Structure of Malonyl CoA-acyl carrier protein transacylase:
Amino acid sequence: MALLFPGQGTQHIGMGEAVCDQSPATARVWDCASDIAGFDLRRLCSKGPMPRLDKTQYQQVAVTCVNIASLVALRERGEPDVAALAGHSVGEFSALFAAGVLGMEDVFRAVAARGRIMQALAEQTDGAMYAIKGVGRDVIAELIAAHELGDAITVANDNSPRQQVISGSKAALKELLPALLRAGFEQVKLPVNGAWHSALMLPGREDFQAVIDGLQFAAPQLPLFTNQAAAAVSDIEQIRQDLVVNLYSTVRWRETMQALVASGVGGFLEVGPKKVLGRLLQDFTELQPLPPVGHVSDYLAPHVALAD
């Protein structure tokens, strides 16, 4: 089974309550995240307010906290046999923890810094993100090229054969979005305040590299599929590099899922606040029948239920 850890966009008020202080081990996750981030994660996740939770400097730490607390609770119950790991965007740090690559404190140091860097860049730029449904990456890339937009717009998340997320300046998006609408593709503006995984995040590269350089990395104890390689990576230097490049480059999630299926995993288990990544797998019609897809709440039930 492969464990999948989600990133931003899975936050909601009340998330993680079922795995908050459930045991000394889960309590330690919340304590560690709060101490390093400098704000009360328990209060933020349970009470909000939502506009604050939506801000990337808070959201990234909050989602990571719930991911890791859920993993700890799963392990306390006796997790299923795990054959591989992957995390979507900032969810990759949860996968690094699960693989033994980074310790808990280093994970929260990295994620807190990543959120602050991205929040600062969002406030300095005028960017946005849109989910485009019913289309693959190649079609989006062709439309971007046809409008000669260069790197003003990026495919931020190649999520599935039928879902892309584009990211870039609002001016460039204003030019491209009507063409997507005319082509019949549904578009949804994402509730984010920046253009993640785009060239607008490139100025944060050096600052985040300094953060990554200050962390203690170990070799993965399980196959770790990274967003940039879309394959299992064991080399520590490549993992370091991929984490930095991921800040301003496409999340190759579609290829990652295809690689996991090709590797022979017997199923998928999403470990996080909501059932998001599992639902994306339904777009992979070429991989049908898919291995079983579950959520961590399925394993923790009937004692807890994380999300619908």
